[in-house]
TrEMBL record, chain A:
It comes from the Eukaryota. This is Ras-related protein Rab-4. Keywords: Endosome, GTP-binding, Hydrolase, Lipoprotein, Magnesium, Membrane, Metal-binding, Methylation, Nucleotide-binding, Prenylation, Protein transport, Transport. One of its GO terms (molecular function) is metal ion binding. Belongs to the small GTPase superfamily. Rab family. One of its GO terms (biological process) is Rab protein signal transduction. NCBIfam families: small_GTP. InterPro entries: P-loop_NTPase (IPR027417), Rab4 (IPR041819), Rab_GTPases_membrane_traffic (IPR050209), Small_GTP-bd (IPR005225), Small_GTPase (IPR001806). It comes from Danionella cerebrum. It is a lipid-anchor. Gene3D superfamilies: P-loop containing nucleotide triphosphate hydrolases. GO terms for cellular component: early endosome membrane; plasma membrane. PROSITE patterns: RAB (PS51419), RAS (PS51421).
From TrEMBL, chain B:
This is Rab-GAP TBC domain-containing protein. Residues 245-287 form a coiled coil. Residues 7-21 have a biased composition (Polar residues). PROSITE patterns: TBC_RABGAP (PS50086). Residues 318-530 form the Rab-GAP TBC domain. GO terms for cellular component: cytoplasmic vesicle; vacuole. The keyword Coiled coil applies. Keywords: Coiled coil. SUPFAM superfamilies: Ypt/Rab-GAP domain of gyp1p (SSF47923). It comes from the Eukaryota. It comes from Danionella cerebrum. Residues 1-21, 201-225 are annotated as: Disordered.
């Protein structure tokens, strides 16, 4: 592929069935709401190159099936994810109550340093709200998650959710908290990054190839 | 009014009417000046409504173009008398010499009698705002069989007219037909039915007959107006200077080219249409024949015939929709001995559950927390059914809330959760139930649904027995490597395991990922050959797109396979599937699967991490 990017991040979209995971992904990539969407069986994919703090980052997004029953299948896709959107539906307390389970899975199975952003989706349906911004925000703080309320319908905060998550990962890389070269980090160098790395300052990085993870 | 009686040989001369008349031109100019007329011509179509005895009018304005020759395109309806006149009233054609414009009706022309339910007499009035007859200007009457240039549909006629005016020094009046560039009838039947009178505008209510072109007649209605000029033809001949031979030659040539092109186009179109029609007829005939064979020969003798080579071959070609449900039911069988009664029992139990669930949502929630996840999952699956039904074939708009099959789908899925509470509802089931509902009635669909899900492969998947699923994927990969070693290696290189695309395909039996008609054909053979065919189809798809896939990286392959192209064709897939070899080192699918099940080697070559 002739795409150039500095980094490739593996992203997950997880959360209960019907919370709008696929619609968030579709809105993020196509910039419009998918009103005749099917439910996801297994996993679907999306990818997009975004620009974050002067770096172009390719997001490789794994949009997983939400039904509890598929957990055993979708768990196998968590491995090596650098970031995740944890989605619940603000009009359904049930989807909010399930967050702990999703979170445990993600922390356990994806990379240890996985950056997770909590997304309270269907923000446009404020009249039917069952989960307040405040309590979700508190939950996010307690669990060290970023938090946004999003609307896949209107597109509000959708791009922001992906971008903020990617920015946090980049910050972690810069601060050294995250090592992209560690196996299972969910991060790969793109061609552009490789070129930079081949600069004299880090000549030894020549050996770094796109790590297959 | 011009009546051209021509054959293709004559057409060159017959269709070109050159009116050279200086005085006419002067008159035109005068009129132009007098009436500040624009070069726009307004066509007024008057439709005589025989029921109400009124005229309906449609006006279409057209600008003349400098370059192209303005055209008057006429799609004749049945029994239409078209007249060009500036007068408001319509003048009947001359009795002796009916101003008849006979138009050839080509084979493929659209003659819809029903389109003209009320117009015994439809009048097309050509009206130039400057008071001039449009026909006095350079114009081409051009009949198109297939489509009208103007929006004439509103006239309830297929008589379409384009007319415009050019300011050239001489005035040509041309009547052409796209069919043959000859305004004539070749269809005898049509000749009787199609009587198109195009009478000249009142300005030209004179006889127009050219000595060189004897077949052309312009009839003059009896009723003429005072300002009507002398008989048209003599009028032109007397008063207009002869067209220079060179110029006439040039125009004739141009005209011939136009005609030739139009004819070529027409011929091509006609051939295409004919081919399409033939193909469709052939297809319909073969479907009809197959349906007959299935319903009269095979189905009555199912047990003895179902495994014969002839039936299997016919089966491979796709089941006719009329017998599809029946054949599926027979092929899936009913090992579980489900009866209509059992379905009704399950359904009523499901309804009870829904009612109590709805009544005590809050109570169920606290119970669920006490009883742990499994109960929550059970209850959630009731909610999930509702949610997923609306997300099942959303584009068909028949399973959604308010759609005709919404309740049926809901009932079958609900009844199944009562029949197999240990399995419950699993995403993907709604697609299977929906496809069955589309092909059989409710109770039969339920019987087929339960028996289908009871097959080993489907049970493994719908119980989400992950290790058993991995065994299936491993078996698939054995045949994948055997059939497509290069692509297999490429996938391995990109860490793309087969579960990524197979899960969706196997769970929904391709009904979500392939267009529905192709999915049904896969189901046909799946009913014949069993689970093996699902994996064979997967290999067929991979083979079909092998060249594209080998040039893609992980994310593009994953995206491609989880969202197959819409324009995928059944023939391509099936011919690709035919080439898949389901025999690996003398082992067929069941043996490979068995040996993988026995040997604890359950993880696939790719999934081994």
């Amino acid at each position: 592929m002739s795409e150039t990017y500095d980094f490739l991040f593996k992203f997950l979209v997880i959360g209960n069935a019907g919370t709008g995971k696929s619609c968030l992904l579709h809105q993020f990539i196509e910039k419009r709401f998918k009103d005749d969407s099917n439910h996801t069986i297994g996993v679907e994919f999306g990818s997009k190159i975004i620009s974050v703090v002067n770096k172009s980052v390719k997001l490789q997004i794994w949009d997983t099936a939400g039904q509890e029953r598929f957990r055993s299948v979708t768990r196998s896709y968590y491995r090596g994810a650098a970031g995740a959107l944890l989605v619940y539906d603000i009009t359904s307390r049930e989807t909010y109550n399930a967050l702990t389970n999703w979170l445990t899975d993600a922390r356990m199975l994806a990379s240890q340093n996985i950056v997770i952003i909590l997304c309270g989706n269907k923000k446009d349906l404020d009249a039917d709200r069952e989960v307040t911004f405040l309590e979700a925000s508190r939950f996010a703080q307690e669990n060290e998650l970023m938090f946004l309320e999003t609307s896949a319908l209107t597109g509000e905060n959708v791009e922001e959710a992906f971008v903020q998550c990617a920015r946090k990962i980049l910050n972690k890389i810069e601060s050294g908290e995250l090592d992209p070269e560690r196996m299972g980090s969910g991060i790969q160098y793109g061609d552009a990054a490789l070129r930079q790395l081949r600069s004299p300052r880090r000549a030894q990085a020549e050996s770094v190839q796109e790590c297959g993870c | 009014m011009a009546e051209a009686e021509p054959s293709s040989g004559q057409k060159n001369d017959d269709q070109l009417f050159s009116f050279s008349n200086t005085s006419l031109k002067q008159r035109i100019t005068q009129k132009h000046a007098d009436q500040h007329a624009t070069s726009d011509t307004t066509l007024i179509f008057q439709t005589f409504d025989s029921v109400n005895g009124t005229y309906e009018e449609d006006r279409i304005s057209m600008s003349s173009q400098d370059s192209g020759i303005p055209t008057l395109e006429i799609n004749p309806p049945e029994h239409i008398h078209a007249r060009a006149t500036t007068a408001e009233r319509v003048i009947p054609p001359h009795d002796d010499k009916p101003a008849t414009l006979n138009l050839e009706i080509s084979e493929g022309s659209l003659i819809k009698a029903s389109t003209f339910p009320r117009c015994d007499f439809d009048f097309v009035r050509l009206h130039a705002p400057n008071g001039l007859s449009s026909a006095a200007c350079k114009g081409t009457l051009n009949r198109s069989d297939d489509f009208s240039v103007c929006s004439v549909s509103s006239l309830s006629t297929e008589f379409s007219t384009t007319l415009s005016v050019s300011n050239e020094d001489f005035l040509d009046f041309m009547v052409t037909s796209e069919s043959s560039a000859v305004v004539t009838f070749e269809n005898e039947d049509a000749l009787n039915r199609f009587d198109h009178s195009l009478s000249p505008p009142s300005d030209f209510h004179k006889k127009l007959s050219s000595p060189q072109r004897p077949s052309v007649e312009i009839s003059t209605p009896k009723e003429t107006r005072s300002k009507t000029p002398a008989p048209l033809i003599s009028f032109f001949h007397r008063n207009l200077p002869a067209k220079p031979e060179e110029e006439a030659q040039k125009h004739r040539q141009e005209y011939e080219e136009m005609v030739a092109q139009a004819k070529k186009r027409e011929l091509k179109e006609a051939q295409k249409r004919k081919k399409q029609l033939e193909d469709r007829c052939k297809l319909e005939e073969s479907i009809g024949n197959a349906a007959l064979t299935w319903s009269q020969e095979i189905l009555p003798n199912w047990q003895s015939m179902c495994s014969s080579k002839r039936v299997r071959d016919l089966w491979w070609q796709g089941l006719p929709p009329s017998v599809r449900g029946k054949v599926w039911s027979l092929a899936i069988g009913n090992d579980l001995n489900i009866t209509d009664e059992l379905y009704n029992i399950c359904l009523s139990r499901a309804k009870e559950k829904w009612n109590t669930f709805v009544a005590s949502t809050s109570a169920a929630e606290t119970d669920a927390q006490d009883a742990g996840l499994s109960l929550a999952d059970r209850e959630a699956s009731l909610e999930l059914i509702k949610l997923d039904i609306s997300r099942t074939f959303p584009h068909l708009c028949i399973f959604q809330e308010g759609g005709p099959y919404h309740d049926v789908l809901h009932s079958i899925l609900g009844a199944y959760t009562c029949y197999r509470p240990d399995v419950g509802y699993v995403q993907g089931m709604s697609f299977i139930a929906a496809v069955l509902i589309l092909n059989m009635d409710t109770a039969d669909a339920f019987i087929a649904f339960t028996n289908l899900l009871n097959k080993p492969c489907q049970m493994a998947f719908y119980r989400v027995d992950h290790s058993l699923m991995l065994t299936y994927f491993a078996a698939f990969e054995v045949f994948f490597e055997e059939n497509l070693p290069k692509l297999f290696a490429h996938f391995k290189e990109n860490n793309l395991s087969s579960d990524i695309y197979l899960i969706d395909w196997i769970f929904t039996l391709y009904s979500k990922s392939l267009p529905l008609d192709i999915a049904c054909r896969v189901w046909d053979v799946f009913c014949r050959d069993g689970e093996e065919f699902l994996f064979r189809t997967a290999l067929g798809i991979l083979r079909l797109y092998e060249d594209i896939l080998t040039h893609m990286d992980f994310i593009h392959i994953a995206q491609f396979l989880t969202r197959l192209p819409d324009d995928i064709s059944a023939d391509e897939i099936f011919s690709s599937v035919t080439t898949v070899n389901m025999n690996c080192r003398n082992k067929r699918w069941p043996q490979v699967l068995q040996s993988l099940l026995k040997g604890q080697d359950r993880s696939s070559p790719l999934l081994k991490r």
